[in-house]
Write a structure and sequence with these properties.
The complex is a heterodimer of chains A (227) and B (148). Chain A has 227 residues and is mainly alpha-helical. Chain A is 62% helix and 0% strand. Chain B has one domain: Four Helix Bundle (Hemerythrin (Met), subunit A) (Up-down Bundle), CATH 1.20.120.610. Chain B is elongated and about 60 Å long. The chains are: A mainly alpha (227), B mainly alpha (148).
């Protein structure tokens, strides 16, 4: 590398990511991406893997664990992130996840979590409990879309809510990327955006399978065939 | 004291060449790394990626020309002038080489995605080159006033 933390070759070798909602397919597979990411220095690679393990569901443990244990683990892992941008984004994402968990909990008609237990990650757990009856828990200053998210969840429009969240994540990642070109942060933000595109394109695939099944059922029904 | 002044004069004489070459080395390395990355991702236009990565090499050439323009027997009378002009133009060439390399890396990165913007995206690198030319030309002009 010409400079410490500079990844000119790596960034230039990454394929362009289309805008999230216009993406039809992934520009590169995870195998291809991992091949490019092998250019990262060992320390940076470790930090990126830690961030991915904190944020993406496919990297989570499949064994059910108590909330308190999961939240404690996540807090400890966030502290291991040394890069300020990665740490800030990861914390914001986990705080957003805490907000979503609270919104879902309230929608189910459950009481606020016990403040003596660790039920979420970040700065707002106490505020959420204190403002349990407020639609966005008084967190509009930190999450301006919280009110809209609450309304969508209240109307059972979970797909729209998911789209809103992914759009907000994409916007935040794109804004952060504006200040980074050929450094480690640019690579990490690219990987985060790649995960979003991957999720979105899979959504489309699932929708296509569902629609295909529906059309097959409809056709079979019209023909009077039963499977 | 005279020896120190003479040493500074020699530093000013060789400075444009050395600093310009350092700028070119770093600039070409940055743009070259980006070009190598783009080769993995594209199937055509490789020649222009490699070509543009050599753009920051002009600073070393300007440095050589300024060094020859300044070249004269170094005396206590002219050492200050040689040092001032040589080091300052050398620094200007070095920084322009480094930043031009970064501009070229960006050109490679965007034109890999949209080849049609190659011509337009090269403008920032050309503007940086323009400032290097200013520093080079006026170093030549002003060096005429240094006593032989």
């Amino acid at each position: 590398m010409a400079q410490s933390g500079s990844y000119y070759t790596l960034v230039a070798s990454l394929p362009h990511l289309p805008h999230l909602f216009s993406a039809k397919r992934l520009p590169c597979s995870r195998i291809q991406l991992d091949r490019r990411l092998s250019m990262l220095e060992a320390d940076d690679r470790e930090q990126l893997e830690l961030m991915e393990s904190l944020l993406w569901w496919d990297r989570q443990s499949v064994v059910p664990e108590p909330d308190e244990l999961i939240c404690g683990d996540k807090r400890a892992q966030v502290e291991q992130l040394r890069n300020p941008l990665l740490k800030g984004f990861t914390l914001w994402r986990l705080e957003l996840r805490t907000l979503i968990a609270a919104l879902r909990r309230r929608r189910l008609g459950l009481a606020p979590p016990d403040s003596s237990t660790r039920w979420g990650v970040g700065r707002w757990t106490e505020q959420i409990i204190a403002n349990w009856q407020s639609p966005a828990f008084g967190l509009e200053f930190c999450f301006p879309f919280a009110q809209e998210l609450h309304e969508l969840l209240a109307k059972d429009q979970s797909l729209e809510a998911e789209k809103l969240l992914m759009g907000e994540l994409w916007t935040r990642l794109t804004r952060l990327q504006d200040d980074h070109y050929f450094d480690f942060e640019a690579v990490a933000l690219y990987v985060m955006r790649w995960h979003l595109v991957e999720r979105w394109t899979h959504h489309e695939r699932d929708a296509a399978i569902e629609r295909f099944d529906h059309l097959v059922d409809q056709a079979l029904e019209q023909q009077g065939i039963e499977l | 004291m005279d020896n120190l002044i003479l040493a500074l004069g020699w530093a000013g004489l060789y400075g444009p060449m050395a600093l310009g070459a350092i700028g070119s080395m770093i600039g070409c390395a940055l743009a070259g790394q980006a070009a190598c990355g783009a080769l993995l991702e594209t199937e055509s236009g490789h020649g222009r990626f490699i070509g543009i990565s050599a753009m920051p090499s002009s600073q070393a050439i300007y440095g050589i020309v300024v060094m020859f323009a300044l070249n004269r027997p170094v005396t206590v009378d002219n050492a200050g002038g040689l040092f001032g002009i040589g080091i300052l133009v050398g620094l200007a060439l070095m920084f322009s080489g480094i930043w031009q390399g970064k501009c070229c890396a960006s050109v490679i990165n965007v034109s890999k995605i949209r080849p049609e913007v190659f011509g337009m995206s090269i403008a920032p690198a050309a503007i940086v080159e323009g400032f290097a030319v200013f520093a080079f030309i006026f170093a030549l002009v002003i060096s005429a006033g240094i006593p032989a």
